[in-house]
Write a structure and sequence with these properties.
- With 145 residues, this protein is an alpha+beta fold.
- It has one domain.
- The chain is built from 5 helices and 7 strands, in the order αββααββαβββα.
- It has a 5-stranded mixed sheet with strand order 3-4-5-6-7. A two-stranded antiparallel ribbon has the order 1-2.
- Strand 4, helix 4 and strand 5 form a beta-alpha-beta unit.
């Protein structure tokens, strides 16, 4: 498999909190030009941006999970926690097939699948059971509480 590149996708520049830029979740970064060349400060981008690699880019998922296509960015938070950040403009993207079935298949004992849509976080179990996961906005953004 060839090395993957972001290409025209910059969904992480919208969905993720970037502390160094004081960029909130679910808002386009002021330095991003989606579909028009990407990051305008690419050479000088913050460490959080420089080191970020989504599941698709890392090769952990197939091309169906290209974030610009599926409207989700998958992040491995810990070995036992997969976070699915969903574009709030497409809040049901994670429920579409084949994504929903795949997310359910990832859910296993000891692995938390957490779907974030805005400030709402939903835990997903392998049997399709869903449960609200309380997260403060600070926690969602990765800030100290």
């Amino acid at each position: 498999m060839s090395e993957r590149k972001c290409g025209t996708c910059s969904l992480c520049c919208k969905l993720l909190y970037i502390s160094e830029l004081n960029k909130p979740i679910d808002k386009w970064c002021g330095h991003c030009r989606p579909g028009r060349g990407g990051c305008t400060i690419y050479a000088d981008r913050p460490v959080n941006c420089r080191t970020f690699v989504c599941h698709w880019l890392a090769g952990h998922t197939d091309d169906l999970w290209y974030p610009a296509r599926c409207k989700m960015v998958l992040l491995q938070m810990h070995k036992d926690h997969l976070l699915v950040d969903v574009d709030p403009n497409f809040p049901n993207a994670w429920r579409r097939e084949p994504y929903y079935a795949t997310l359910r298949s990832y859910a296993a004992p000891g692995l938390l699948i957490e779907v974030r849509i805005g400030l709402r976080c939903v835990g997903l179990d392998a049997d399709g059971t869903e449960h609200e996961v309380y997260r403060s906005q600070a926690h969602i953004e990765g800030r100290p509480e």
